[in-house]
């Protein structure tokens, strides 16, 4: 039955019979037959049938939740057995919001060094997708903003607080200053993340706290897209200090401290709360506690600010 549960979970995730079959490495007829066999064993219809996938029945949605938990428990058992033999093996499935992705290597590198038998699958996800993927047991853990209300039933481990700085042309209006207000930054030709990104909404709140509104000429839905414009030396941007770990300061640009009472949100690890956490999650949390992510990022920021 475990294989049939895998078929159901894949179909619910892919919402397409052919893609679900490919994800399970079986033919489409084999997947369909497996789901029909599961329906026969349970005595209920699980999917709304038609020429294509039309969704799960109410009973199917209920079975899906059980299937996700059963398969997660199976994977956790495999991890426990591997750890009992002296070495953790398998794949750590880690999701990260785009703004935290830039600092993810501060966690994944020491994890791989401590557990060489484990591979890491790292995926960029929105805050909303992270909650859905965690509760669906599609990922093991996530790097995300911890003040998200959807995480109230999760187990969380803070790693650092976002600190914001102005990245601006070295020959611009603030070529000499060591500090700029949020209102002053708002008046510059700006390139920022798009409003649908959580980071941008946080920045807009900070601008508003200084009685200012940012009107960027360029918006991007990726950090890489933003930096592609910053390297031209034409634009300024407000960035998280964690981005400095991945992206060097472009030539002709400088990092300037932003003044004001604004505080960045906490970023950390989130996992589904369970009485007994899987061995992979326990191992990740143990590494995260020793990784010194906050200190590493604060030291990096100080070096860029020259203090």
Give the C-level CATH assignment of the largest domain.
Alpha Beta
Report the average pLDDT across residues: 89
Largest sheet: 5 strands, mixed
Count of beta strands = 11
CATH homologous superfamily caption of the largest domain = Periplasmic binding protein-like II
Low-pLDDT parts are: none
Shape estimate: elongated
User: How many discrete structural domains?
Assistant: 3
CATH-defined topology of the largest domain: D-Maltodextrin-Binding Protein, domain 2
Question: What structural class do helix, strand and pairing data support?
Answer: alpha/beta
What value does the Rg take, in angstroms? Answer: 23 Å
The number of helices is: 12
Helix content: 40-55%
Characterization of this structure:
The strands form 3 sheets. A 5-stranded mixed beta sheet has the order 2-1-3-11-4, sandwiched between helices. Helix 1 packs across helix 3. The chain is α/β, with parallel strands linked by helices and 307 residues long. The chain folds into 3 domains: 2-68, Arc Repressor Mutant, subunit A (Orthogonal Bundle); 88-160 and 266-293, D-Maltodextrin-Binding Protein, domain 2; 164-259, D-Maltodextrin-Binding Protein, domain 2 (3-Layer(aba) Sandwich), CATH 3.40.190.290. It has 12 helices and 11 strands. The model has no long low-confidence stretch (mean pLDDT 89). The chain has helices at residues 2-14, 17-23, 28-42, 58-84, 98-101, 105-114, 127-135, 182-186, 198-209, 223-230, 279-290, 293-305; strands at 90-96, 118-124, 141-145, 154-161, 164-169, 179-181, 191-193, 218-220, 237-240, 253-259, 266-272.
């Amino acid at each position: 039955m475990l294989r049939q549960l895998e078929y159901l979970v894949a179909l619910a995730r892919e919402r397409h019979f052919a893609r679900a079959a490919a994800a399970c490495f079986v033919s489409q007829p084999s997947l369909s037959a497996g789901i029909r066999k599961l329906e026969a064993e349970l005595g209920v219809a699980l999917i709304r049938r038609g020429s294509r996938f039309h969704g799960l029945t109410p009973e199917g949605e209920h079975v899906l939740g059980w299937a996700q938990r059963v398969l997660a428990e199976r994977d956790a058992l495999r991890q426990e057995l591997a750890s009992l033999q002296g070495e953790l093996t398998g794949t750590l499935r880690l999701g990260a919001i785009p703004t935290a992705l830039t600092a993810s290597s501060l966690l994944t590198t020491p994890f791989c060094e401590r557990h060489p038998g484990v591979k890491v699958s790292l995926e960029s996800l929105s805050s909303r997708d992270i909650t859905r993927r965690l509760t669906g047991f599609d990922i093991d853990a996530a790097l995300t903003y911890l003040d998200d209300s959807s995480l109230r039933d999760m187990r969380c481990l803070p790693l650092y607080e976002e600190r914001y700085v102005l990245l601006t042309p070295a020959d611009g209006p603030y070529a000499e200053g060591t500090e700029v207000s949020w209102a002053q930054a708002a008046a510059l030709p700006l390139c920022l993340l798009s409003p649908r990104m959580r980071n941008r909404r946080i920045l807009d709140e900070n601008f508003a706290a200084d009685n200012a509104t940012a009107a960027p000429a360029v918006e991007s839905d990726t950090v890489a897209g933003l930096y592609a414009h910053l390297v031209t030396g034409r634009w300024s941007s407000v960035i998280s200090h964690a981005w400095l770990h991945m992206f060097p300061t472009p030539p002709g640009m400088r990092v300037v401290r932003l003044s004001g009472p604004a505080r960045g949100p906490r970023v950390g690890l989130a996992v589904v709360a369970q009485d007994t956490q899987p061995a992979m999650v326990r191992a990740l949390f143990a590494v995260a506690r020793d990784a010194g992510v906050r200190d590493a990022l604060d030291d990096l920021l100080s070096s860029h600010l020259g203090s």
